[in-house]
Structures are given as structure tokens and as C-alpha cells.
Please model this.
Amino acid sequence: MSNDNVIEVKNLTMEYSTRKGNVSAVDNVSFSIKRGQALGLVGESGCGKTSIAKSLLKLLPDNAMIQQGQIVLNGKDMVPLSETEMRTHRWSEISMVFQAAMNAFNPVYTVGDQIIEAIETHLPKVTEAEGRAKIETLFRMVGLAPEMMDRYPHEYSGGMRQRAVIAMALSCDPDIIIADEPTTALDVIVQDSILKEITALQENLNMSMVYISHDVAVIAEVSDRVGVMYAGRMVELADTEEIFIRPIHPYTYALMQSFPSVTGPKKELISLPGEPPDLLHPPKGCRFHPRCPNRIEQCDQEQPEWKDYGNNHFCACWNPMEVN
Amino acid sequence: MWSYIGKRVFQMLITLVLFQIATYILIDLQPGDVTDLFVGNPNITAAERQRIAADLGLDGPLYERMWNYLTNFYTGNLGVSMVQYPRPVGEILAQRLPRTLALFVYATVFSFWFGYVAGKFLAWKRGGRWEYATTIVGVTLYTIFTPLLGYILLWGFATKLDKWVRNTFGIDFDLPVSKFSSTSLWRKAPYDTNTVFNWMNLNFIILVVIVLLAFFLSRYVPRNRREFLRVASMTVPFALSLVWWIFFSGVGIYAWDLVIHLFLPILTLTLISFGGNMLLTRTSMLETLREDYIETARAKGLPEKIIRNRHAARNAILPVWTALVFSLSSTISGGIITETVFSWPGIGEILVDSVSNSDFPVAMGALTVIGVMTLVAHLIVDIGYAFLDPRIRVH
Model:
């Protein structure tokens, strides 16, 4: 692995302990992101995408534990850090655009005050006037009128709020930004313009990004590299174009099949029967095997290896789709 | 804002008139009047009693008497006491109002503030023995019968604590358990009790205004000096006024006498609503801590103290403030009971007194004062809510 990686995640395993037992929400996931690169994480609901995002910021509830692995951010492992030490890295190096932008702002303070607060914490030398100037620039960048910073969150529309959340995420010049389904709650037109905004910002600022979505089409638009998650494990990881042309894992293939192509030839959409497994009692071997059309005997016995298929394309499957 | 307040004041006036009419009818429904006090006196015949009643204006039909009362009231004449004849009701109430108002305001402010702070920390540090202990204390205080609490405190402070202090330190602590002042001490005083008491209240109001101003102005000073300004605003004026009262006012000993007389009534009334405020703040804070913006605040890497105070507690206070409207009425009724238990000569005490003596104008006046207090307190709570929550601000 080269040194221009902003973040390297190695064998990350995170579990929630519940009364019924441990839920392995993230199991042995590894990936790395270069400066200016956008990684898309895609998968069904409840397959560990958001758990990965929260683990990266170490923003976990009390019952969650990172069991093993490393999260190396700018050359420093975040996993052993205490809450107080972690605090200085949050937002200044790694920030997040939240899924529920509607409630991401505290209703009793103006949006500007809440952004200034982050700047004050991480850049104590910045004066209030400089902070406001910075927010003005950020608001222009995300397409909001700078006067809006003195308004309260309830005076914003859904789309405006999402833009403000993005501006807030950029306020301390982070090296990497995690976008957790930022457009899911918005209508398609707003969604499209915000997606374009995010992509442009990420390229202009040469920032790294983890983009989380269940929507394959959105992922295709924003990311340079795609990781496919299933039941807490990463099953396939490749460059965006590569994975869309040559999906190797049957689950990736099924995901691609379940979305229509607007420009391509008409085809029947194939939906994948069944649902993701209960992570309290994950299936033995490959976690996808109960739903897999390509299942062979080995699948329910052993966990498939993480294999290199060339062209920077990795996959974990005993019986992959035909590799052409 | 001003048009809103004007509208509210107009509504309050209508409510007050309706309240007076209802109260008048209810009092009128009670059997007997002040002349019944003379029933046992063989020198006053039934005919004589009727003549006295006619003199006092107690005969005529209900609507006529009520009309007379209301027109007199709104032209500034509250009538005269029938028991302390011919002392004007206005004078009696004016003498007692500052005391009751002070009792009510101090108890409300203290119970709200301490309940808020205690609830905040309880929710923040969940679990453990502290939580059980404080929850039990909170529920007990919330549900206890007010006079019982008063008598428990009387017993604890006046007998047990007194004895303990005398045996351990050899000092006569002598915490007064009733009345407003020690008569023997005040005989030589240069001022009367109400004058000194009003100075003390004025002093308290000035202190509160300074703190509020400092918190408001601290936004405009550089960040690193904010905390200093806030702490200074809370401590320096307080210390200065203490020094003034002790060394320069010349009435320090008299003021202290009033303070120790105030102690138990205020403690009783504070404890009654403290439990409810604490439990409600705790619940509300636990709810707030699950909100998304708390997670955002954590993700932003803000210090825990800021997340707790600026984000969680600041939002958790909203429902507690709303509930203040309901707890006000219990504080007012609790105030009447507390005043009676501690023979504290306020509005509540004279109300109980006048009702048992059928002193109709005084009872009516005291009830009206309590009604006005309730209405004004509600207005203040509503205006305060608009300051606390930008979402309901009137534009």
C-alpha cells in the first residue's frame, strides 16, 4: 500500500453486544482510499454500511465494540485512541454528512452558530469574523445564500438543510468526508443537484470521500471505486467502471440486475428473493449462500477467500460469475 | 412582540373579571357571614345583627352586590376589612404582597434552577446508586403532602438540628420556626420590616439582572474571556452586596433576622416543586440525548461539557419550562399551606384567616391577588418560552 492513502482500514471487525448475544455488524473489512478518491459502499439495508461509517469516526453507541483491526487515518491508528484524543481528529480530519439532515441541526441555534462552533473547537486561532467569512465561502460553494447562516434550521427546506450539512462537514477542511445516504430523504430533482454538488466539491477540493448508499445508480455517479457489502462483510471491491462491466460476485451481479438502465437496452429487472440474514446468527461459510444462485457445496462450509482478480479487482466467492 | 403582549394583557383582564365573578358567586354560596361571629353574644339581638349586615352591605341581591364590588374594585377601592374594621383591604394586601411574592418567586426560581441542574447531571451520568437515590427522593418530594413536609422540616431544623448544633459547637443556633421577624429585636430598629425586606428584594433583583446582562453581553466578548465574565457576574456583585449589608447598611442584623425567618418557608416550598422539576428534566434530557443533533455535536468533536450544556440541556429545558405553568399553581396553593404552617404573615395566611372569619372583602381581595399572580406568571412563562425556542417566536 502506498503512502498517499488518506485512510487505510485493515481487518475491521465491530460487534454490538445485545442481550441475545453479539451481533457482528462489520466483519473483517479492509479497504483504503487515496487522496481525492471517492469510495462508494453499496448494499441492502442492514448490511453494515452505516456501522462502518460510525466506526471510522468511532462514533459508536456504548454497546458497540471494535473487536479488531486498524483504522489508519493520515498514518495514525485511530482504534486505540481514547474518546478525548479522538475528539481532536473528528471533523478536522474526518467529517460526516449525516443521513437525517432534517435533525442534524440543533433547533435552538442558528445554522451559522453551529458551524462556527466546530471551527472554534478545532481552529482556536480563527476569530469570529474569519469564521463567518469562511462560512460565507462555504455557503456559496454549496449553493446557499450567505445570509442564510443567521437563520434557524426550521427556516430551511429539506434540500437547503442538506446543503448546510455539507457546508458544515467542509468547515474544518477535513481530509476525508463520509457521506451516509445524504440524498435518500430528498426528491429526485434536489437529489440530482446535490449529487452533482458533492461530486464537484470533492473533485475541486481534492478530498477523499466514502459515499454510502443502497442506490446503485447514485453510487455509479459519485464514486471512483465501489465496495459491495453484504451482511457485514465486504464481498467485492473494484473500480467503478470495472465492477459495472465485470461483476464477479453473484450478489453484485444481482444488485446490478435489479436496477433499470435508462439508456441501455430494455431488459427484465430481476429481483433477488429472500432477505439479508439475521446477524445474531449469521450463516456459516459465505453469508450469502442461502440466497445465492451459484451455490456449491463448499459455500456453507468455509468462508471464501479475498482473491485478487487482477485490474485492482477483489472478490470473495467460491463460485464467481463467469470471468470473461 | 409588543402587540402580542398587549393582546395577552387584554385577554388576562377579561380572564380576571370572569375569575372574580366566579369567585364571588362561590364565596356567596357559602353559608353565613361576618355577623355570625356575634351569635354567641347575648347583648346583640338578631335584629341588631341584621342591621349590622345591612350596614356592611351584606343584604341586597347577589347581582347588585357583585356589581358594586366590581365597580369599586376597578375604581381602586377594595373595601374595608370587616374583622379589622375599618382597615382598608388594599392596605392589608399591600403590606403582605411583597412577602408572598418573594416567597413565591424565590421558591420557583430555586426549585427550577436546582431541579434543572440536578436532572441534567442525572441524565448525563446514568446508572448507579445515585440514580436510584435521587429518583426515590424526587418521587417522595413530588408526592408528599405539603403540610407534612413543613412539619418534618420544622421538627428536623427546630428540634433535632438545634440540639445537635448546641451540643457539638456550643452555640445557640435558634432557627426561627414561625413568623416574619423577631418582635423583640425589631423594637429598636430604625426602619420597619417591610422597608428592609424591600431593599433586600431590590438587591436580589439587581443581582439577577446583572447576571442576565452578563450572559447576554458575553456573546460579544472574545471567546477566552466569556467564562470569566460569566463567573465574575455571578460572584462579584453578590460578594459586594454581602459586604454592603454586613458593614455599611447599618441594618445587617435586621436583614439577617428576616433571612433566617425566610429560610424554612422557602425551603419547604422549593422542595415541593424541586422533585417534579428534577424528574422531568432528567426524562427530557434522556430523550434529547437520543436526538440526531447530539450525534452531530459528537461527530464535530465538541467537548463533552459543550455537548451536555449547550446542546442537550438547552433543548431539554423546553418541556420543563412548559411544565412550569402547571407547577406554578401547585406552588401557589403550596404557598398558602406553607404560610399557614409557618404562621408567615403573607397573602395565603390572611386568606385562610379571612375565610374562617367570614371576612368577605379580605378573602375576595386575597383571591384576586392570587389570580393576578397566576395570570402574570403564565404571561412571563409564555414570553420566556419564545426566548428559549426560536421555532415559536412571533414574527
In short: Residues 107-173 of chain A form one domain.
